Amino acid sequence: MDRNQLRRQVAHMRSSLIEQNYLDQQQFVQLEDLEDDSNPNFVEEIVTLFYKDSSRLFQKIDQALHSIPMDFARLDDYMHQFKGSSSSIGAIKVKNECTQFKECCLAGNAEGCSRAFQRVKQEHEALKRQLETYFQLRRQAGLVQRS
């Protein structure tokens, strides 16, 4: 497949991620606009940092969900941090699930928090798979440097 075809595929995949509400167009394109010759892998690096940070926050949330009594204020704080990180990369579905989790915290609904956390993790993982494919296509198309 030639580079032009690959570049069209990259553009199509980005559009698809936006249309399916995985990504916020304005936020994600704004991140891509920050890439230049001195930092051609900027978006992938930011997303990689997001996933590393997510792992740390997920551990804290998981521990807090199993504490007795459950500290809903702490859970809300952790999810607030995660929601902010999700917003910074334009992860719409993840952010929406974070909002549901926060609502369960406000209601003091432990069962709801646990279910919402599972949905947060599912959307988080689904986005990760999509973005891995997207970044792989970008590398194949020569739009970024290989790591």
From TrEMBL:
Q: Name one GO cellular component term.
A: cytosol
Pfam families, per the entry: Hpt (PF01627)
Q: Name one GO biological process term.
A: phosphorelay signal transduction system
Q: Give all Phosphohistidine modified positions.
A: 80
Keyword presence, Phosphoprotein: yes
**UniProtKB keywords:** Coiled coil, Cytokinin signaling pathway, Phosphoprotein, Two-component regulatory system
Give the coiled coil ranges.
110-137
Q: Can the keyword Phosphoprotein be found in this entry's annotation?
A: yes
Where does the protein end up?
Cytoplasm, Cytosol; Nucleus
Query: Which is one GO molecular function term here?
Result: histidine phosphotransfer kinase activity
Q: Which residues form the HPt domain?
A: 39-134
Domains: entry comment = Histidine-containing phosphotransfer domain (HPt) contains an active histidine that mediates the phosphotransfer.
User: What does the record give as the function of this protein?
Assistant: Functions as a two-component phosphorelay mediators between cytokinin sensor histidine kinases and response regulators (B-type ARRs). Plays an important role in propagating cytokinin signal transduction.
Q: What is this protein's name? A: Histidine-containing phosphotransfer protein
Recall the taxonomic lineage recorded for the source organism.
Eukaryota, Viridiplantae, Streptophyta, Embryophyta, Tracheophyta
